Amino acid sequence: MTAQTERVDAAPAAGAPVSVKTPKSPDRRPGRRGESSAPYLLLIPSLLATAVLLGWPLVKNLVISFQNLNPRQLIQHLTEWAGFSNYQEALGSEVFWRVTLRSIVFTSINVVLIMVLGTLVGLLLARLGRRMRTLLLFGLVLAWAMPTVAGTTVFQWLFAQRFGVVNWMLAELGWESMADYNWFGSQVSTFSVVILLIVWQSIPFVAINLYAATTTISKELYEAASLDGAGAWKSFTSVTFPHIKPFLWATTFLEVIWVFKALTQVYAINRGGPDRLTEILPLYAFVEGPGNQHYGMGAAISFLTIAILLVLTAYYLRTVLKQGEDEL
Amino acid sequence: MNRSLFARTWPGTLAVLLFAVFVFPVYWMFSTAFKQRGDIVSETPVFLPLDGTLENFRTAFSADHFWTLVGNSVTVTVLAVLMSLAIGLAASFALARMKFKGRRGFVVTFMIAQMAPWEVMVIAIYLIVRDADMLNSLVPLTLFYMVMVLPFTILTLRGYVAAVPRELEESAMVDGCSRPQAFIKVIFPLLAPGLMATSLFGFITAWNEFPMVLILNKDVEMQTLPLWLTSFQTIFGDNWGATMAASSLFALPILIVFVFLQRRAVAGLTSGAVKG
What we know:
The complex is a heterodimer.
Chain A: H1 38-64, H2 71-76, H3 85-92, H4 94-127, H5 130-145, H6 148-158, H7 165-172, H8 187-215, H9 219-227, H10 232-260, H11 263-270, H12 281-291, H13 295-324
Chain B: H1 2-33, H2 37-40, H3 55-61, H4 66-97, H5 103-114, H6 122-131, H7 138-163, H8 166-174, H9 179-190, H10 192-208, H11 211-216, H12 225-230, H13 232-236, H14 240-260, H15 262-272
Protein backbone atom coordinates (compact mmCIF):
# COMPACT_ATOMS: atom_id res chain seq x y z
CA MET A 1 0.00 0.00 0.00
CA THR A 2 1.61 3.23 0.92
CA ALA A 3 4.73 2.72 2.81
CA GLN A 4 8.03 1.04 3.02
CA THR A 5 6.45 -2.37 3.24
CA GLU A 6 8.05 -3.96 0.23
CA ARG A 7 7.57 -7.57 -0.49
CA VAL A 8 10.06 -9.60 1.47
CA ASP A 9 9.27 -12.71 3.39
CA ALA A 10 9.78 -12.73 7.12
CA ALA A 11 8.17 -13.03 10.52
CA PRO A 12 5.06 -10.98 11.35
CA ALA A 13 5.47 -7.51 12.72
CA ALA A 14 5.59 -6.91 16.42
CA GLY A 15 4.96 -3.21 16.32
CA ALA A 16 7.08 -0.93 18.45
CA PRO A 17 10.18 0.54 16.80
CA VAL A 18 13.43 -1.18 17.55
CA SER A 19 16.64 0.68 18.17
CA VAL A 20 19.92 0.07 16.39
CA LYS A 21 21.25 -3.35 17.15
CA THR A 22 24.95 -3.81 17.17
CA PRO A 23 25.97 -6.70 14.95
CA LYS A 24 26.98 -9.78 16.88
CA SER A 25 30.51 -10.86 16.20
CA PRO A 26 30.13 -13.44 13.46
CA ASP A 27 31.27 -16.95 14.11
CA ARG A 28 33.72 -18.00 11.49
CA ARG A 29 33.55 -21.66 10.80
CA PRO A 30 36.28 -22.87 8.52
CA GLY A 31 35.10 -23.65 5.03
CA ARG A 32 31.98 -21.46 5.12
CA ARG A 33 34.05 -18.43 5.90
CA GLY A 34 32.25 -15.15 5.37
CA GLU A 35 28.83 -16.66 4.77
CA SER A 36 27.50 -15.88 8.24
CA SER A 37 29.23 -12.55 8.66
CA ALA A 38 28.42 -11.42 5.15
CA PRO A 39 25.11 -9.69 5.92
CA TYR A 40 26.66 -7.71 8.74
CA LEU A 41 29.63 -6.73 6.62
CA LEU A 42 27.27 -5.55 3.90
CA LEU A 43 25.31 -3.53 6.42
CA ILE A 44 28.24 -1.95 8.21
CA PRO A 45 28.83 1.03 5.89
CA SER A 46 25.17 2.04 5.97
CA LEU A 47 24.84 1.54 9.71
CA LEU A 48 28.03 3.42 10.40
CA ALA A 49 27.00 6.34 8.23
CA THR A 50 23.57 6.47 9.83
CA ALA A 51 24.92 6.25 13.35
CA VAL A 52 27.55 8.94 12.84
CA LEU A 53 25.63 11.39 10.70
CA LEU A 54 22.13 10.89 12.07
CA GLY A 55 22.55 9.35 15.52
CA TRP A 56 25.28 11.68 16.66
CA PRO A 57 23.45 14.93 15.81
CA LEU A 58 20.41 13.60 17.67
CA VAL A 59 22.47 12.87 20.76
CA LYS A 60 24.34 16.14 20.39
CA ASN A 61 21.02 17.96 20.20
CA LEU A 62 19.96 16.43 23.49
CA VAL A 63 23.30 17.25 25.12
CA ILE A 64 23.31 20.89 24.01
CA SER A 65 19.79 21.36 25.24
CA PHE A 66 21.17 20.98 28.78
CA GLN A 67 23.87 23.60 28.22
CA ASN A 68 24.22 27.33 28.26
CA LEU A 69 25.48 27.91 24.76
CA ASN A 70 25.50 31.57 23.83
CA PRO A 71 28.07 33.46 21.73
CA ARG A 72 30.49 33.72 24.67
CA GLN A 73 30.56 29.98 25.38
CA LEU A 74 30.59 29.25 21.67
CA ILE A 75 33.62 31.38 20.90
CA GLN A 76 35.64 30.29 23.93
CA HIS A 77 34.56 26.65 23.52
CA LEU A 78 33.22 26.50 27.06
CA THR A 79 30.93 23.78 28.29
CA GLU A 80 28.49 25.23 30.77
CA TRP A 81 25.83 22.89 32.06
CA ALA A 82 22.49 24.43 32.68
CA GLY A 83 20.42 21.53 33.92
CA PHE A 84 16.83 21.77 32.82
CA SER A 85 16.84 25.56 32.69
CA ASN A 86 16.50 25.71 28.90
CA TYR A 87 13.48 23.45 29.07
CA GLN A 88 12.05 25.39 31.99
CA GLU A 89 12.53 28.61 30.11
CA ALA A 90 11.00 27.22 26.92
CA LEU A 91 8.06 25.52 28.58
CA GLY A 92 7.51 28.49 30.85
CA SER A 93 7.40 31.05 28.08
CA GLU A 94 4.13 32.10 26.63
CA VAL A 95 5.72 32.38 23.17
CA PHE A 96 6.59 28.68 23.08
CA TRP A 97 3.03 27.64 23.73
CA ARG A 98 1.71 30.14 21.25
CA VAL A 99 4.07 28.80 18.57
CA THR A 100 3.15 25.22 19.48
CA LEU A 101 -0.53 25.94 19.21
CA ARG A 102 0.10 27.75 15.92
CA SER A 103 2.02 24.74 14.59
CA ILE A 104 -0.78 22.41 15.55
CA VAL A 105 -3.45 24.56 13.93
CA PHE A 106 -1.27 25.08 10.85
CA THR A 107 -0.62 21.35 10.53
CA SER A 108 -4.26 20.42 11.08
CA ILE A 109 -5.60 22.79 8.44
CA ASN A 110 -3.02 21.61 5.93
CA VAL A 111 -3.52 17.92 6.58
CA VAL A 112 -7.32 18.09 6.52
CA LEU A 113 -7.23 19.96 3.21
CA ILE A 114 -4.59 17.66 1.74
CA MET A 115 -6.38 14.48 2.74
CA VAL A 116 -9.89 15.55 1.77
CA LEU A 117 -8.97 17.14 -1.54
CA GLY A 118 -6.33 14.51 -2.31
CA THR A 119 -8.86 11.74 -1.73
CA LEU A 120 -11.44 13.44 -3.93
CA VAL A 121 -8.93 13.94 -6.73
CA GLY A 122 -7.81 10.32 -6.36
CA LEU A 123 -11.38 9.07 -6.63
CA LEU A 124 -11.91 11.30 -9.63
CA LEU A 125 -8.84 9.75 -11.27
CA ALA A 126 -10.36 6.33 -10.75
CA ARG A 127 -13.58 7.46 -12.43
CA LEU A 128 -12.10 9.18 -15.46
CA GLY A 129 -11.66 7.75 -18.91
CA ARG A 130 -8.17 7.00 -20.07
CA ARG A 131 -7.40 10.22 -21.90
CA MET A 132 -8.66 12.55 -19.22
CA ARG A 133 -6.90 10.53 -16.57
CA THR A 134 -3.60 10.79 -18.39
CA LEU A 135 -4.08 14.53 -18.68
CA LEU A 136 -4.82 15.01 -14.99
CA LEU A 137 -2.02 12.64 -13.98
CA PHE A 138 0.38 14.68 -16.06
CA GLY A 139 -0.70 17.86 -14.28
CA LEU A 140 -0.38 16.24 -10.88
CA VAL A 141 3.05 14.83 -11.62
CA LEU A 142 4.24 18.22 -12.80
CA ALA A 143 3.13 19.89 -9.56
CA TRP A 144 4.61 17.02 -7.58
CA ALA A 145 7.96 17.25 -9.31
CA MET A 146 8.27 21.00 -8.87
CA PRO A 147 11.17 21.61 -6.48
CA THR A 148 10.05 23.13 -3.17
CA VAL A 149 12.04 26.31 -3.42
CA ALA A 150 11.04 26.92 -7.03
CA GLY A 151 7.41 26.40 -6.04
CA THR A 152 7.78 28.88 -3.20
CA THR A 153 9.31 31.49 -5.48
CA VAL A 154 6.52 31.05 -8.01
CA PHE A 155 3.87 31.45 -5.32
CA GLN A 156 5.53 34.67 -4.20
CA TRP A 157 5.18 35.90 -7.74
CA LEU A 158 1.58 34.64 -8.12
CA PHE A 159 0.63 36.50 -4.94
CA ALA A 160 2.81 39.56 -5.51
CA GLN A 161 1.20 42.81 -4.44
CA ARG A 162 1.96 44.59 -7.69
CA PHE A 163 1.33 42.73 -10.96
CA GLY A 164 0.58 39.46 -9.17
CA VAL A 165 -1.87 37.41 -11.19
CA VAL A 166 -3.95 36.36 -8.16
CA ASN A 167 -4.75 39.92 -7.13
CA TRP A 168 -5.63 40.76 -10.71
CA MET A 169 -7.94 37.77 -10.92
CA LEU A 170 -9.69 38.61 -7.66
CA ALA A 171 -10.20 42.19 -8.81
CA GLU A 172 -11.59 40.96 -12.12
CA LEU A 173 -14.01 38.72 -10.24
CA GLY A 174 -15.38 41.82 -8.59
CA TRP A 175 -13.25 41.90 -5.48
CA GLU A 176 -11.90 45.38 -6.20
CA SER A 177 -10.29 45.88 -2.80
CA MET A 178 -7.93 42.98 -3.53
CA ALA A 179 -6.32 44.72 -6.48
CA ASP A 180 -3.34 45.89 -4.44
CA TYR A 181 -3.56 43.48 -1.55
CA ASN A 182 -0.34 42.70 0.30
CA TRP A 183 -0.54 38.97 1.04
CA PHE A 184 2.62 39.00 3.09
CA GLY A 185 1.51 41.81 5.39
CA SER A 186 -0.53 39.83 7.87
CA GLN A 187 -0.34 36.53 9.67
CA VAL A 188 -3.52 35.02 8.28
CA SER A 189 -2.88 35.98 4.67
CA THR A 190 0.74 34.79 4.78
CA PHE A 191 -0.40 31.49 6.22
CA SER A 192 -3.08 31.26 3.55
CA VAL A 193 -0.46 31.46 0.82
CA VAL A 194 1.79 28.92 2.57
CA ILE A 195 -1.14 26.55 3.04
CA LEU A 196 -2.17 26.86 -0.60
CA LEU A 197 1.42 26.16 -1.59
CA ILE A 198 1.76 23.10 0.62
CA VAL A 199 -1.65 21.73 -0.35
CA TRP A 200 -0.83 22.24 -4.02
CA GLN A 201 2.46 20.40 -3.56
CA SER A 202 0.98 17.59 -1.48
CA ILE A 203 -2.28 16.64 -3.18
CA PRO A 204 -0.54 14.76 -6.04
CA PHE A 205 1.10 12.31 -3.64
CA VAL A 206 -2.19 11.47 -1.94
CA ALA A 207 -4.26 11.46 -5.13
CA ILE A 208 -1.92 9.29 -7.19
CA ASN A 209 -1.39 6.81 -4.36
CA LEU A 210 -5.06 6.62 -3.65
CA TYR A 211 -5.82 6.05 -7.28
CA ALA A 212 -3.20 3.29 -7.34
CA ALA A 213 -4.88 1.74 -4.30
CA THR A 214 -8.31 1.76 -5.94
CA THR A 215 -6.98 -0.02 -9.01
CA THR A 216 -6.26 -3.03 -6.83
CA ILE A 217 -9.91 -3.41 -5.85
CA SER A 218 -11.39 -6.28 -7.83
CA LYS A 219 -14.22 -5.37 -10.20
CA GLU A 220 -16.23 -8.34 -8.96
CA LEU A 221 -16.74 -6.67 -5.61
CA TYR A 222 -18.45 -3.76 -7.33
CA GLU A 223 -20.51 -6.10 -9.46
CA ALA A 224 -21.57 -8.02 -6.40
CA ALA A 225 -22.48 -4.77 -4.68
CA SER A 226 -24.58 -3.57 -7.58
CA LEU A 227 -26.32 -6.96 -7.83
CA ASP A 228 -27.23 -6.48 -4.20
CA GLY A 229 -28.81 -3.22 -5.25
CA ALA A 230 -26.11 -0.87 -3.99
CA GLY A 231 -26.04 2.61 -5.52
CA ALA A 232 -22.92 4.67 -6.13
CA TRP A 233 -22.76 5.94 -2.56
CA LYS A 234 -23.43 2.56 -1.02
CA SER A 235 -20.81 0.81 -3.12
CA PHE A 236 -18.35 3.53 -2.13
CA THR A 237 -18.99 3.07 1.58
CA SER A 238 -19.10 -0.71 1.46
CA VAL A 239 -16.41 -1.51 -1.12
CA THR A 240 -14.09 1.41 -1.87
CA PHE A 241 -13.78 3.00 1.53
CA PRO A 242 -12.95 -0.11 3.56
CA HIS A 243 -10.30 -0.90 0.98
CA ILE A 244 -8.58 2.49 1.08
CA LYS A 245 -9.03 3.13 4.79
CA PRO A 246 -5.64 1.73 5.91
CA PHE A 247 -3.98 3.75 3.19
CA LEU A 248 -5.76 6.94 4.27
CA TRP A 249 -4.81 6.36 7.88
CA ALA A 250 -1.13 5.82 7.17
CA THR A 251 -0.98 8.73 4.72
CA THR A 252 -2.61 11.09 7.19
CA PHE A 253 0.24 10.40 9.60
CA LEU A 254 2.86 10.86 6.91
CA GLU A 255 1.33 14.20 6.00
CA VAL A 256 1.16 15.31 9.64
CA ILE A 257 4.84 14.53 10.03
CA TRP A 258 5.79 16.25 6.79
CA VAL A 259 3.74 19.37 7.34
CA PHE A 260 4.75 19.75 10.97
CA LYS A 261 8.36 20.22 9.91
CA ALA A 262 7.66 22.25 6.76
CA LEU A 263 10.33 24.78 7.55
CA THR A 264 11.48 25.46 4.02
CA GLN A 265 8.19 26.78 2.65
CA VAL A 266 7.41 28.94 5.67
CA TYR A 267 10.91 30.35 5.83
CA ALA A 268 11.37 30.91 2.12
CA ILE A 269 8.05 32.61 1.57
CA ASN A 270 8.30 35.29 4.22
CA ARG A 271 11.09 34.43 6.69
CA GLY A 272 8.46 33.60 9.33
CA GLY A 273 7.17 37.16 9.08
CA PRO A 274 5.46 39.51 9.43
CA ASP A 275 6.80 40.14 12.94
CA ARG A 276 7.66 36.48 13.51
CA LEU A 277 3.94 35.74 13.40
CA THR A 278 4.19 32.78 11.04
CA GLU A 279 7.01 30.98 12.83
CA ILE A 280 6.14 27.34 13.39
CA LEU A 281 8.09 25.16 15.84
CA PRO A 282 11.03 24.12 13.63
CA LEU A 283 11.47 27.70 12.47
CA TYR A 284 11.14 29.02 16.03
CA ALA A 285 13.96 26.71 17.11
CA PHE A 286 15.96 27.89 14.13
CA VAL A 287 15.45 31.57 14.93
CA GLU A 288 16.16 31.13 18.66
CA GLY A 289 19.24 28.99 18.04
CA PRO A 290 21.38 30.17 15.15
CA GLY A 291 19.38 33.36 14.69
CA ASN A 292 19.49 34.78 18.21
CA GLN A 293 22.59 32.79 19.16
CA HIS A 294 20.91 30.94 22.01
CA TYR A 295 21.95 27.50 20.91
CA GLY A 296 21.06 25.76 24.16
CA MET A 297 17.59 27.21 24.09
CA GLY A 298 17.21 26.44 20.38
CA ALA A 299 18.31 22.86 21.00
CA ALA A 300 15.77 22.49 23.79
CA ILE A 301 12.98 23.66 21.48
CA SER A 302 14.34 21.39 18.74
CA PHE A 303 14.34 18.45 21.05
CA LEU A 304 10.77 19.06 22.14
CA THR A 305 9.82 19.23 18.45
CA ILE A 306 11.75 16.05 17.70
CA ALA A 307 10.00 14.35 20.61
CA ILE A 308 6.60 15.25 19.18
CA LEU A 309 7.69 14.00 15.76
CA LEU A 310 9.11 10.79 17.22
CA VAL A 311 5.83 9.96 18.89
CA LEU A 312 4.01 10.58 15.62
CA THR A 313 6.57 8.50 13.71
CA ALA A 314 6.38 5.62 16.18
CA TYR A 315 2.63 5.61 15.85
CA TYR A 316 2.85 5.81 12.07
CA LEU A 317 5.32 2.94 11.83
CA ARG A 318 3.19 0.88 14.15
CA THR A 319 0.18 1.24 11.87
CA VAL A 320 2.26 0.54 8.79
CA LEU A 321 3.95 -2.49 10.30
CA LYS A 322 0.63 -3.84 11.49
CA GLN A 323 -0.81 -3.49 8.01
CA GLY A 324 2.28 -5.06 6.54
CA GLU A 325 2.02 -8.04 8.92
CA ASP A 326 3.97 -10.63 6.95
CA GLU A 327 5.63 -8.25 4.55
CA LEU A 328 8.55 -6.92 6.53
CA MET B 1 -31.55 14.60 -20.98
CA ASN B 2 -29.89 17.66 -19.52
CA ARG B 3 -29.17 15.81 -16.37
CA SER B 4 -27.58 12.86 -18.08
CA LEU B 5 -25.42 15.16 -20.18
CA PHE B 6 -24.18 16.73 -16.97
CA ALA B 7 -23.66 13.34 -15.43
CA ARG B 8 -21.60 12.27 -18.40
CA THR B 9 -19.45 15.38 -18.66
CA TRP B 10 -18.72 16.56 -15.16
CA PRO B 11 -15.79 14.25 -14.43
CA GLY B 12 -14.04 15.32 -17.62
CA THR B 13 -14.76 18.99 -17.03
CA LEU B 14 -13.52 18.79 -13.49
CA ALA B 15 -10.41 16.98 -14.66
CA VAL B 16 -9.60 19.77 -17.10
CA LEU B 17 -10.18 22.40 -14.41
CA LEU B 18 -7.97 20.59 -11.93
CA PHE B 19 -5.34 20.09 -14.58
CA ALA B 20 -5.33 23.85 -15.10
CA VAL B 21 -5.06 24.53 -11.36
CA PHE B 22 -2.13 22.17 -10.91
CA VAL B 23 -0.26 23.18 -14.01
CA PHE B 24 -0.82 26.93 -13.81
CA PRO B 25 1.97 27.79 -11.33
CA VAL B 26 4.44 25.78 -13.40
CA TYR B 27 3.20 27.39 -16.60
CA TRP B 28 3.31 30.84 -15.04
CA MET B 29 6.91 30.30 -13.99
CA PHE B 30 8.05 29.36 -17.49
CA SER B 31 5.92 31.91 -19.30
CA THR B 32 7.04 34.77 -17.06
CA ALA B 33 10.63 33.70 -17.62
CA PHE B 34 10.19 34.29 -21.36
CA LYS B 35 8.27 37.56 -21.10
CA GLN B 36 9.43 41.01 -22.02
CA ARG B 37 9.63 43.38 -19.10
CA GLY B 38 6.59 45.31 -20.36
CA ASP B 39 4.48 42.16 -20.34
CA ILE B 40 5.46 41.35 -16.77
CA VAL B 41 4.78 44.76 -15.23
CA SER B 42 1.44 45.14 -16.91
CA GLU B 43 -1.84 45.93 -15.21
CA THR B 44 -3.51 43.15 -17.20
CA PRO B 45 -1.46 39.95 -17.07
CA VAL B 46 -0.28 38.61 -20.40
CA PHE B 47 -1.19 34.95 -20.50
CA LEU B 48 0.45 34.05 -23.79
CA PRO B 49 3.82 35.75 -24.29
CA LEU B 50 4.00 35.62 -28.07
CA ASP B 51 6.93 38.01 -28.37
CA GLY B 52 9.15 36.04 -26.03
CA THR B 53 12.65 37.01 -25.03
CA LEU B 54 15.68 35.26 -23.60
CA GLU B 55 16.75 38.41 -21.80
CA ASN B 56 15.65 37.09 -18.39
CA PHE B 57 17.75 33.98 -18.78
CA ARG B 58 20.71 36.09 -19.76
CA THR B 59 20.24 38.09 -16.55
CA ALA B 60 20.05 34.90 -14.49
CA PHE B 61 23.09 33.35 -16.17
CA SER B 62 25.16 36.43 -15.59
CA ALA B 63 24.11 36.85 -11.95
CA ASP B 64 27.00 36.70 -9.50
CA HIS B 65 28.15 33.19 -8.64
CA PHE B 66 25.43 31.50 -10.69
CA TRP B 67 27.72 28.99 -12.37
CA THR B 68 29.64 28.36 -9.16
CA LEU B 69 26.38 27.47 -7.46
CA VAL B 70 25.28 25.24 -10.32
CA GLY B 71 28.59 23.44 -9.96
CA ASN B 72 28.14 23.13 -6.19
CA SER B 73 24.59 21.83 -6.47
CA VAL B 74 25.50 19.28 -9.11
CA THR B 75 28.58 18.10 -7.24
CA VAL B 76 26.85 17.70 -3.92
CA THR B 77 23.77 16.04 -5.39
CA VAL B 78 25.52 13.59 -7.68
CA LEU B 79 28.10 12.54 -5.11
CA ALA B 80 25.52 12.12 -2.36
CA VAL B 81 23.30 9.98 -4.58
CA LEU B 82 26.14 7.81 -5.90
CA MET B 83 27.58 7.22 -2.46
CA SER B 84 24.23 6.30 -0.98
CA LEU B 85 23.53 3.95 -3.90
CA ALA B 86 26.87 2.25 -3.38
CA ILE B 87 26.55 1.58 0.33
CA GLY B 88 22.77 1.24 0.20
CA LEU B 89 22.87 -1.47 -2.45
CA ALA B 90 25.09 -3.60 -0.24
CA ALA B 91 22.76 -3.19 2.71
CA SER B 92 19.63 -3.80 0.66
CA PHE B 93 21.09 -7.00 -0.74
CA ALA B 94 21.71 -8.28 2.75
CA LEU B 95 18.23 -7.30 3.90
CA ALA B 96 16.49 -8.78 0.88
CA ARG B 97 18.41 -12.00 0.33
CA MET B 98 20.04 -13.16 3.51
CA LYS B 99 18.72 -14.64 6.70
CA PHE B 100 20.44 -13.41 9.81
CA LYS B 101 19.79 -12.38 13.35
CA GLY B 102 18.40 -8.89 13.79
CA ARG B 103 17.37 -8.43 10.16
CA ARG B 104 13.96 -7.14 11.14
CA GLY B 105 15.52 -4.73 13.60
CA PHE B 106 17.72 -3.30 10.86
CA VAL B 107 14.77 -2.81 8.55
CA VAL B 108 12.83 -0.96 11.24
CA THR B 109 15.92 1.10 12.05
CA PHE B 110 16.10 2.32 8.48
CA MET B 111 12.36 2.98 8.49
CA ILE B 112 12.79 5.23 11.51
CA ALA B 113 15.84 6.85 9.94
CA GLN B 114 13.80 7.66 6.87
CA MET B 115 11.49 9.78 8.98
CA ALA B 116 14.37 11.65 10.63
CA PRO B 117 13.45 15.28 11.25
CA TRP B 118 16.51 16.79 9.55
CA GLU B 119 14.93 20.22 9.47
CA VAL B 120 14.83 20.27 13.25
CA MET B 121 18.33 18.89 13.75
CA VAL B 122 20.21 21.68 12.03
CA ILE B 123 21.34 23.34 15.27
CA ALA B 124 23.21 20.26 16.44
CA ILE B 125 24.54 19.67 12.94
CA TYR B 126 25.80 23.24 12.80
CA LEU B 127 27.70 22.83 16.06
CA ILE B 128 29.17 19.49 15.01
CA VAL B 129 30.34 20.84 11.68
CA ARG B 130 31.65 23.97 13.34
CA ASP B 131 33.66 21.95 15.87
CA ALA B 132 35.08 19.95 12.99
CA ASP B 133 36.05 23.26 11.40
CA MET B 134 34.19 22.40 8.22
CA LEU B 135 31.72 25.24 7.86
CA ASN B 136 31.56 26.61 4.32
CA SER B 137 32.57 23.35 2.75
CA LEU B 138 30.77 20.97 0.43
CA VAL B 139 32.05 17.88 2.25
CA PRO B 140 29.64 17.89 5.22
CA LEU B 141 26.74 18.77 2.93
CA THR B 142 27.52 15.80 0.69
CA LEU B 143 27.83 13.45 3.63
CA PHE B 144 24.63 14.56 5.32
CA TYR B 145 22.68 14.46 2.06
CA MET B 146 23.97 10.96 1.51
CA VAL B 147 22.58 9.81 4.85
CA MET B 148 19.40 11.77 4.25
CA VAL B 149 18.62 9.68 1.16
CA LEU B 150 20.23 6.46 2.39
CA PRO B 151 17.26 4.91 4.25
CA PHE B 152 14.96 5.40 1.30
CA THR B 153 17.61 4.00 -1.02
CA ILE B 154 18.01 0.89 1.10
CA LEU B 155 14.32 0.24 1.62
CA THR B 156 13.41 0.78 -2.02
CA LEU B 157 16.30 -1.20 -3.45
CA ARG B 158 15.48 -4.00 -1.06
CA GLY B 159 12.16 -4.36 -2.84
CA TYR B 160 13.81 -4.38 -6.24
CA VAL B 161 16.44 -6.92 -5.17
CA ALA B 162 13.76 -9.16 -3.68
CA ALA B 163 11.84 -8.97 -6.95
CA VAL B 164 14.71 -10.56 -8.88
CA PRO B 165 13.94 -14.30 -8.93
CA ARG B 166 16.19 -16.21 -6.65
CA GLU B 167 16.46 -18.97 -9.27
CA LEU B 168 18.43 -16.69 -11.59
CA GLU B 169 21.05 -16.17 -8.96
CA GLU B 170 21.13 -19.82 -8.00
CA SER B 171 21.50 -21.05 -11.55
CA ALA B 172 24.38 -18.64 -12.03
CA MET B 173 26.00 -20.10 -8.95
CA VAL B 174 25.41 -23.62 -10.25
CA ASP B 175 27.17 -22.52 -13.41
CA GLY B 176 30.21 -21.76 -11.31
CA CYS B 177 29.78 -18.13 -10.33
CA SER B 178 30.60 -17.12 -6.79
CA ARG B 179 27.90 -15.23 -4.96
CA PRO B 180 29.45 -11.80 -5.62
CA GLN B 181 29.89 -12.76 -9.30
CA ALA B 182 26.27 -13.89 -9.50
CA PHE B 183 25.25 -10.57 -8.04
CA ILE B 184 27.27 -8.49 -10.47
CA LYS B 185 26.42 -10.54 -13.57
CA VAL B 186 22.80 -11.44 -12.90
CA ILE B 187 21.12 -9.23 -10.35
CA PHE B 188 22.83 -5.92 -10.99
CA PRO B 189 21.71 -5.57 -14.64
CA LEU B 190 18.13 -6.35 -13.62
CA LEU B 191 18.31 -3.66 -10.97
CA ALA B 192 18.85 -0.82 -13.43
CA PRO B 193 15.25 0.44 -13.29
CA GLY B 194 15.27 0.25 -9.51
CA LEU B 195 18.53 2.13 -9.31
CA MET B 196 17.12 4.79 -11.60
CA ALA B 197 13.91 5.28 -9.65
CA THR B 198 15.80 5.34 -6.38
CA SER B 199 18.39 7.81 -7.51
CA LEU B 200 15.64 10.07 -8.83
CA PHE B 201 14.31 10.52 -5.33
CA GLY B 202 17.78 11.06 -3.93
CA PHE B 203 18.45 13.58 -6.62
CA ILE B 204 15.29 15.53 -5.75
CA THR B 205 15.98 15.53 -2.01
CA ALA B 206 19.56 16.67 -2.29
CA TRP B 207 18.80 19.19 -5.04
CA ASN B 208 16.01 20.72 -2.91
CA GLU B 209 17.69 20.71 0.47
CA PHE B 210 17.55 24.10 2.07
CA PRO B 211 17.74 24.43 5.90
CA MET B 212 21.12 22.74 6.25
CA VAL B 213 22.97 24.67 3.60
CA LEU B 214 21.33 27.82 4.97
CA ILE B 215 22.96 27.37 8.34
CA LEU B 216 26.21 25.67 7.37
CA ASN B 217 27.47 27.67 4.42
CA LYS B 218 27.39 31.42 4.78
CA ASP B 219 30.10 31.86 2.18
CA VAL B 220 28.31 32.55 -1.11
CA GLU B 221 30.91 30.60 -3.07
CA MET B 222 30.00 27.45 -1.14
CA GLN B 223 26.22 27.67 -1.29
CA THR B 224 23.80 25.74 -3.46
CA LEU B 225 21.02 26.82 -5.79
CA PRO B 226 18.04 26.68 -3.36
CA LEU B 227 19.71 29.24 -1.14
CA TRP B 228 20.53 31.40 -4.09
CA LEU B 229 16.95 31.21 -5.29
CA THR B 230 15.43 32.22 -1.95
CA SER B 231 17.61 35.29 -1.86
CA PHE B 232 16.49 36.35 -5.32
CA GLN B 233 15.25 39.67 -3.97
CA THR B 234 18.77 40.69 -3.04
CA ILE B 235 20.02 39.44 -6.40
CA PHE B 236 17.32 40.55 -8.81
CA GLY B 237 15.35 43.09 -6.79
CA ASP B 238 11.83 43.18 -8.15
CA ASN B 239 12.83 41.68 -11.47
CA TRP B 240 10.30 38.88 -11.60
CA GLY B 241 11.31 37.88 -15.10
CA ALA B 242 14.84 37.07 -14.02
CA THR B 243 13.60 35.45 -10.82
CA MET B 244 11.28 33.16 -12.76
CA ALA B 245 14.04 32.41 -15.25
CA ALA B 246 16.22 31.38 -12.31
CA SER B 247 13.40 29.25 -10.86
CA SER B 248 12.88 27.62 -14.24
CA LEU B 249 16.55 26.78 -14.55
CA PHE B 250 16.47 25.30 -11.07
CA ALA B 251 13.31 23.27 -11.68
CA LEU B 252 14.05 22.14 -15.21
CA PRO B 253 16.43 19.25 -14.52
CA ILE B 254 13.95 17.66 -12.12
CA LEU B 255 10.90 18.28 -14.27
CA ILE B 256 12.63 16.74 -17.29
CA VAL B 257 13.76 13.67 -15.40
CA PHE B 258 10.34 13.30 -13.85
CA VAL B 259 8.45 13.55 -17.11
CA PHE B 260 10.79 11.11 -18.83
CA LEU B 261 10.71 8.62 -16.03
CA GLN B 262 7.16 9.44 -15.08
CA ARG B 263 5.70 6.00 -14.70
CA ARG B 264 8.73 4.42 -13.20
CA ALA B 265 9.28 7.42 -10.97
CA VAL B 266 5.76 7.47 -9.67
CA ALA B 267 5.85 3.76 -8.98
CA GLY B 268 9.18 4.14 -7.21
CA LEU B 269 8.08 7.05 -5.11
CA THR B 270 4.72 5.63 -4.16
CA SER B 271 6.30 2.41 -3.04
CA GLY B 272 8.64 4.35 -0.82
CA ALA B 273 6.20 6.78 0.77
CA VAL B 274 8.14 9.81 -0.22
CA LYS B 275 7.18 13.33 -0.92
CA GLY B 276 8.89 14.48 -4.07
